[in-house]
What we know:
The chain is an alpha/beta fold. It is about 35% helix and about 20% strand. It has one domain (about 1-200): Spore Coat Polysaccharide Biosynthesis Protein SpsA, Chain A. Strands 1, 2, 3, 4, 5, 6, 7 and 8 form an eight-stranded mixed sheet that branches. The chain is globular.
Amino acid sequence: MIQATGVILAGGKSVRMGTDKAFLKVGPQGMLEHIAGEFKKVFAEVLISGGDPETGRNLGLRVINDLIEGKGPLCGVHAALHEAQHDKILVVACDMPFVTAKLACFMMRQVEGYDVAVPSHGIYLQPLFAAYSRSCLPVIEESLAANKYKIDGFFPRVRVNYVNMENYCSHIDIETLFFNINTPVDLHKAREMADKKITN
């Protein structure tokens, strides 16, 4: 068991989807339930950032609220770093249905000696599947006070391990691992991808 906290960001408004994404099923489980199950395999503590407290009770998890409301996922990271029992957290958006416990363990190893470990894939970063240390809090709070809400906007001011996933995970399908669902079209595609994984 890793002495760190897994955090599921579930506070988004799901505007493009038109319904709460966290409960949509990709495979046999809702996305939030799947991620919670994977995180429980490896983390000493698992939190849900945002969402309905009843959902947390059903999953046996604590739900935390943003301390600074309505400013996007950086506020969820900020609240989680305040509320977590451990100095290091792994944050994942609730709309990433192919997250695995193995990948969570891998990312926590990458944050040792850094303030942040974030996957990179080509020119893209994945700050919503990244590890953060409590040492980031002062810089995050300065960003929020300055109305700077871009989640990776504070990265130049801390020690970041940009983890090139092509180098470390050449044997896995990175496009699938980091697939996230924003629209009904994305949901349909994710269900097709899940069906292929089951039948292969």
